[in-house]
Amino acid sequence: MSMQRTQHDDVILMTKEGYQKLRAELIKLRSDGRSEISKQLEEARSFGDLSENAEYHAAKEAQAKLEARIQFLESQLSKAKIIDNDQIDTSQVTLGTKVTLKDLDLNKEFTYVIVNSEETDPNNHRISVSSPVGQAIIGKAVGDEVIARAPRGIRRLKILRIEI
């Protein structure tokens, strides 16, 4: 029983788009990224003494960062469970829902898709469930008013619509 709970705790809920984006990044890093680092290392080695070779050390550092990102992406994708749109309950704000909010102070409407932190893309209206706004609205229903302590100050928001 505790084994099942541990496995469930390791699950990372993800939208289909988010999963595909991370998978594409992983494929690109494994091929193009590793190839580029290999070229940089080869070129740096040609400069001679590796102990005092700044280009070599910079390339090794870039390689370490690349491999760490690859490992992170592999781990995220191996734990991913894609959210099935047919299973999303639109009676409340949950991961994967599209939420239209009204900022009561600015009298403006905003629409966001609620995603996990790895899928966040504010420029494309995808905000993290862990963000101040995400935390304020998760589990709320249409008509609810919430207060979010965002980086630009306190925002009073009203939930207008919840969709898939």
From TrEMBL:
Keyword DNA-binding: yes
Similarity field: Belongs to the GreA/GreB family.
Keyword Transcription regulation assigned: yes
The Transcription elongation factor GreA/GreB N-terminal domain, residue ranges: 12-82
Gene: greA
GO biological process: DNA-templated transcription elongation; regulation of DNA-templated transcription elongation
Gene Ontology molecular function: any one: RNA polymerase binding
Record keywords: Coiled coil, DNA-binding, Elongation factor, Protein biosynthesis, Transcription, Transcription regulation
Pfam families for this protein: GreA_GreB, GreA_GreB_N
Function: Necessary for efficient RNA polymerase transcription elongation past template-encoded arresting sites. The arresting sites in DNA have the property of trapping a certain fraction of elongating RNA polymerases that pass through, resulting in locked ternary complexes. Cleavage of the nascent transcript by cleavage factors such as GreA or GreB allows the resumption of elongation from the new 3'terminus. GreA releases sequences of 2 to 3 nucleotides.
UniProt protein name: Transcription elongation factor GreA
Organism listed in the record: Acetomicrobium mobile (strain ATCC BAA-54 / DSM 13181 / JCM 12221 / NGA) (Anaerobaculum mobile)
HAMAP family assigned: GreA_GreB (MF_00105)
Ranges for domain Transcription elongation factor GreA/GreB C-terminal: 90-163
Residue runs in coiled coils: 56-83
